[in-house]
Amino acid sequence: MLQPRFIIHGGAGNISRENLSRDSYLLYAASLLEVNRQTASRLACGASALDAATEAVVAMEENPLFNCAKGAVFTREGTIELEASVMVSRGYRKRGCGVVLIKRVKNPVRLAREMLVRGGIDGNDGDSMKEGGGAQGHSVLGGPSAEALAKQWGLDMVDEDYFWTRKRWDQHKRGLRGKELLDCLGAEAGQGRSEPMQADGWDGHEYLSQGTVGCVVLDRYGTLCVATSTGGLTNKLSGRIGDTPTIGAGFWAEEWEESRSDASRQLASTTPKVPTLYNTLLHVFGDCLPRFDGYVNVEDEEDWLHNEKALSKSVRAVAMSGTGNGDSFLRLAAARTAGAIARFSGRSLAFAVKQIAGLGGDLQNSAGDRWGKTGEGEGGIIGIELVARKGKIVCNFNCGGMFRTWNDDDGKERVMVFSDEYEQ
Question: Is 280 in the active site?
Answer without folding.
Answer: no
